[in-house]
């Protein structure tokens, strides 16, 4: 059996230098527990699985995962800061990510973050990180009101395509309102909507027509609600001139230009992804180690009785090996 590769996990270092007023800091409770703070506000309680390679490897062993892609937690992106501040912050976390992954002997593959608000600085930091050992980059799905069809972000995506660096897109900075501030609705409904919106920007904004087909880009959480509503988008593109946007072809033509992860929890939802996007475009993900993630990792893939053994192997690791330019190995 091929390697099992989880492309969607996150890290948080066990402390970092003071970043400045209003920026995240870590309130360490003890050796195994801490709280991410933003100013005086508690953002998220975390455990040692965020920073301890040994704990992660133990959990990977329980779930029979061979390799994890380890990406930043989006609260650290700092897209609202000046470019100079953002460069300083991203360098801190990118260098600490290498320290977290180093003890794992190649089983933890770090993805960096970049100051996406400044495309030239983002490209420079990406190049620095790849030279130092990062294997890809995680970006947020927007920078303020700039979506993924923004000219500067398109420039960065072209650079990723030209250098062969895989891109993982994660939703973040969801809208807030009295209706969304209950029941974790920002995460339960807002995150899927954010990812759907940014896939629309990639398509209707003409990004897939502007970047090389070599771009390797994966969207978190099954691509949000995109697969379910592709038919509605297709109909609107044909019926409404104000939906045509800058895409040269109908939306369905771009299926195959991007991947999504498998964090959808239910086999029927996974089947929709397979039917609409194709089995070769879905990568195993878990959102480890956070509470809205999947444990044991890959259980939705194992439960999906409609998958053939060959398709299951692609979802568990074959597709990710291609995305990461790793050699496929027999288990």
Automatic annotation (TrEMBL):
Amidohydrolase-related domain mapped to chain residues: 5-325
Family: Belongs to the metallo-dependent hydrolases superfamily. ACMSD family.
Enzyme class: lyase
Gene3D superfamilies hit by this protein: Metal-dependent hydrolases
The protein's name in its UniProt record: 2-amino-3-carboxymuconate-6-semialdehyde decarboxylase
Summary of subunit composition and partner proteins: Monomer.
Pathway: Secondary metabolite metabolism; quinolate metabolism
EC number per UniProt: 4.1.1.45
Keywords, alphabetical: Decarboxylase, Lyase, Metal-binding, Zinc
């Amino acid at each position: 059996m091929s390697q099992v590769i989880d492309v969607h996990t996150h890290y948080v270092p066990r402390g970092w230098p003071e970043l400045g007023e209003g920026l995240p800091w870590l309130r360490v409770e003890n050796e195994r527990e801490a709280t991410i703070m933003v100013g005086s506000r508690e953002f998220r309680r975390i455990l040692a699985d965020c920073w301890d390679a040994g704990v992660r490897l133990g959990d990977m062993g329980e779930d029979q995962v061979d390799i994890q892609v380890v990406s930043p937690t989006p609260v650290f992106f700092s897209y609202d800061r000046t470019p100079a501040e953002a460069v300083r912050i991203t360098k801190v976390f990118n260098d600490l990510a290498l320290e977290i992954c180093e003890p794992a002997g190649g089983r933890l593959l770090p993805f960096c973050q970049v100051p996406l608000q400044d495309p030239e600085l983002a490209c420079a930091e990406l190049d620095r990180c790849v030279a130092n050992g990062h294997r890809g980059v995680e970006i947020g799905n927007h920078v303020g009101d700039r979506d993924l069809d923004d000219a500067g972000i398109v420039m960065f995506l072209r650079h990723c395509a030209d250098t062969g660096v895989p891109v993982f897109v994660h939703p973040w900075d969801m809208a807030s309102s009295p209706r969304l501030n209950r029941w974790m609705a920002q995460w339960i409904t807002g995150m899927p909507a954010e990812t759907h919106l940014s896939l629309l920007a990639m398509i209707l904004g003409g990004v897939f027509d502007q970047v090389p087909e070599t771009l390797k880009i994966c969207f978190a959480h099954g691509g949000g609600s995109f697969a379910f509503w592709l038919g509605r988008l297709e109909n609107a593109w044909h019926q409404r001139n104000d939906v045509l946007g800058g895409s040269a072809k109908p939306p369905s033509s771009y299926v195959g230009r991007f991947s999504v992860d498998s964090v959808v929890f239910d086999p029927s939802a996974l089947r929709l992804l397979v039917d609409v996007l194709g089995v070769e475009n879905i990568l195993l993900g878990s959102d480890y180690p956070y509470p809205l993630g999947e444990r044991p990792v890959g259980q939705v893939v194992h439960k999906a009785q409609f998958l053939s053994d060959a398709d299951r192997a692609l979802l568990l690791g074959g597709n990710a090996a291609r995305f990461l330019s790793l050699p496929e190995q027999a288990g």
